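Q: What residues go here?
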């Protein structure tokens, strides 16, 4: 189990539109767990732009984030979010992962990010204190942020590598989705099938390397396919609880495929973070009929051989015959 006085963080890593918001929200209902959404973005969307928290209130009026900022920094005005963003963008991006994989490179990055790592340690510890939680669920997804988070001396990092069929991901990236912010509504970014496929491959390969980040780390890493999660939610959540040593924790399920979601305090994520009440977890079939055949073939070509590695067949019709969608 974690070392004394360290904060357990369950990090959901992978590529966008893979179901991390849903998985994070479900895990946030486990007794002793708290879901904070994409905490990597707290400096932009929380402190700088004051976007809506998952509870529906602006960040600076949220009943959780206000005391968290007070506990961590003595108040939100005592931390410079632009400096945190500058440090993150200067030394904690995907291009820095090869450097982080070597011991000298890791030490070099740690020195450059000393102020940022100190702020992260304070922030996660404050979340744990204010919410009285044992495990913080962070769905920031970026593997580079996962590497950096693992450098924080007060953090015990566990990684769930969430993978979804790249054809479904490509279809999702092409859809229009609106963030329901009444003061500043905006559409989520969109990507074409070629771009999403290249990014899907790069992001998942980088995430796989997280299991080798330090001695003993494979025991703190697990691969979870989104399709397996929605097919057998109870079993998937049980595997995650085993990973963090919380096998006995109270499960959030109210039915074989249903879960009751309470109000969360996700600092950022897709619009699904605002969902509450009883939610049915079921396989997504819309993309199978909605994706253009040419797009499906292009994505299959660009993401092979990771398709095979993660157990996805080459063709969409094969998925339908297998009954996995």
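A:
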């Amino acid at each position: 189990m974690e070392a004394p006085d360290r904060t357990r963080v369950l990090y959901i890593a992978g590529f966008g539109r893979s179901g991390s918001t849903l998985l994070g929200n479900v895990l946030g209902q486990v007794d002793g767990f708290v879901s904070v959404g994409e905490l990597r973005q707290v400096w932009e969307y929380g402190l700088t732009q004051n976007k809506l928290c998952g509870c529906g209130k602006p960040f600076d009026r949220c009943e959780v984030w206000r005391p968290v900022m007070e506990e961590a920094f003595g108040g939100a005005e005592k931390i410079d979010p632009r400096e945190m963003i500058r440090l993150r963008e200067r030394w904690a991006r995907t291009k820095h992962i090869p450097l982080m994989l070597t011991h000298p490179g890791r030490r070099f990055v740690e020195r450059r990010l000393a102020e940022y790592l100190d702020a992260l340690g304070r922030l996660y510890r404050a979340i744990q204190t204010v919410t009285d939680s044992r495990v913080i669920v962070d769905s920031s997804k970026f593997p580079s942020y996962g590497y950096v988070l693992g450098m924080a001396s007060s953090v015990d990092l566990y990684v769930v590598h969430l993978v979804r069929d790249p054809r479904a991901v490509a279809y999702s990236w092409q859809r229009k989705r609106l963030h329901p912010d009444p003061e500043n509504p905006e559409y989520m970014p969109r990507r074409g099938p070629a771009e999403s496929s290249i990014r899907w491959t790069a992001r998942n390969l980088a995430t796989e390397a997280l299991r080798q980040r330090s001695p003993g780390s494979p025991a703190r890493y697990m691969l979870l396919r989104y399709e397996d999660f929605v097919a057998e939610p109870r079993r998937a959540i049980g595997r995650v609880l085993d990973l963090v040593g919380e096998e006995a924790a109270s499960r959030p399920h109210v039915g074989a495929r249903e879960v009751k979601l309470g109000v969360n305090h996700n600092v950022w994520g897709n619009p699904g973070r605002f969902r509450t009440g009883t939610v049915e977890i079921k396989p997504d079939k819309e993309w199978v009929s909605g994706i253009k055949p040419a797009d499906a073939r292009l994505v299959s070509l660009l993401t092979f051989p990771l398709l095979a590695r993660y157990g996805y067949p080459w063709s969409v019709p094969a998925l339908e015959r297998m009954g996995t969608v």
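A: Context that may help when evaluating the design: The longest strand covers residues 155-163. The radius of gyration is 19 Å.
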